[in-house]
Design a protein that fits this description.
373 residues; alpha+beta; Fumarate Reductase Cytochrome B subunit; Sulfite Oxidase, Chain A, domain 2; five-stranded mixed β-sheet; five-stranded antiparallel β-sheet; 44% helix; transmembrane; membrane; Molybdopterin-dependent oxidoreductase; OxRdtase_Mopterin-bd_dom
Length: 373
């Protein structure tokens, strides 16, 4: 009689979980580097949907990994507390890697899930902590694979249901489950978890996204993370004397909203894609950024800084790379979906650029200036 617990199930679940972890790691690195780019990093302006896909994949895969991790822990549970707990140096390395791996994965998945819901019951800064712990989790995973590789290889090459019993536990003691049943159940649970949030990214799945905190609801059909009230810009954004200052170093000019609206207008269908995994496409209308800069002087060959009416916060200012500056679909938007921007969407004007995280799409613009080299 075989037991449902054991290396046969653990190795197969672990293989899929390992792929999910690596997908989360790579897509998470991309998101972090886009927001905090190293000098060597390059991220294109096109295709416009690329960040929507990578960050959506990051969150969907992370949520799908939660049932896999639980089944993985269930499958090895008796062996986690086998004595001796430490033993030889190799065993100590094995036990240590398991403890770090489990702890870091639980931390990453739980905090990532809370971040997707914008729920922060902690005092540390999520972004940098999540980024640092990703390296810890992947490092522990690699050590664990290296130590367990002979067992993993042997378990994966054995027929699933015909391996000999390795513990005193019987199939009846395990609840009458076969290994195949456990694996199928894990796959179904993981798939359902993914569907429960995938609608944040995939419009055709929105009706199935029962656990998605952002699935298309919001002013003008676009979700909102940070409102004008939260940013403290209601009064300044609605001020009748509002002006957008454009400074290219050699020349400077100010524009009222009416003057911006009097310039040639362009529409582009672009997604807002946020780090929490949600995204929504909309028709944005406004002035092409490169054309606006040309009304002031020569088009700069460097990056451009966007400054919000919001005076504090991590994203009160953002830097737009030159390849986005010159892209024809990068707009200083005045309207969305055929109507003037809602105050919570950045009225009187905002940046909307292709293939950028939502946190870098500066709302309530007050100033555009060339970054001095």
């Amino acid at each position: 009689m075989t037991t449902a617990r054991g290396p046969e199930v653990a190795s197969r679940i672990g293989l899929v979980l390992g792929v999910a972890i690596l997908v989360c790691f790579v897509t998470g690195l991309l998101s972090h580097w886009i927001q905090h780019p190293p000098q060597w990093f390059w991220w294109p302006a096109n295709p416009v949907w690329l960040y929507r896909v990578t960050q959506g994949l990051h969150v969907i895969t992370g949520v799908a990994a939660i049932p896999l991790l639980l089944v993985k822990l269930w499958s090895v549970y008796p062996k986690l507390f086998e004595k001796p707990l430490i033993g030889s140096p190799v065993r100590a390395l094995e036990r240590g890697s398991i403890a770090v791996l489990v702890g870091s994965l639980v931390f990453q998945l739980v905090t990532g899930l809370f971040n997707a819901a914008q729920f922060y019951p902690w005092t540390f800064f999520f972004t940098t902590t999540h980024y640092a712990m990703a390296y810890v989790a992947v490092g522990a995973l690699l050590v664990h694979i290296a130590v367990k590789l002979p067992i993993i290889r042997d378990a994966l090459t054995r027929p699933l249901e015909s391996a000999p019993v390795e513990t005193a536990q019987t199939e009846t003691e395990a609840g009458g489950l076969s290994r195949r049943t456990v694996l199928v159940g894990a796959g179904i649970a993981s798939g359902l978890a993914a569907l429960a949030v995938a609608g944040q990214t995939v419009p055709y799945l929105r009706r199935l996204a029962v656990l998605s905190p952002r699935s298309g609801e919001g002013p003008q059909g676009v979700p909102v993370n940070r409102t004008a009230a939260e940013a403290g810009v209601e009064q300044s954004a609605l001020a009748p004397d509002f002006e957008l200052t454009v400074d290219i170093g050699t020349a400077q000019r100010t524009f009222s909203r009416a003057e911006l609206a009097a310039l040639p207008q362009t529409s582009a269908i672009l997604p807002i894609a946020c780090v929490e995994g949600w995204s929504a496409s909309a028709v944005w209308t406004g002035v092409v950024l490169r054309d606006l800069l040309r009304t002031v002087g020569d088009l700069p060959d460097g990056d451009v800084r966007m400054v919000s009416l919001e005076r504090s916060g991590l994203y009160a200012t953002t830097v737009l790379p030159q390849r986005h500056v010159v892209d024809a679909s990068t707009l200083i938007a005045l309207d969305v979906n055929g109507a003037p921007l809602d105050l919570d969407h950045g009225y009187p004007c905002r940046l909307i650029a292709p293939n950028r995280p939502g946190v870098l799409q500066t709302k309530w613009l007050s100033r555009i200036e060339v970054v001095q080299q």
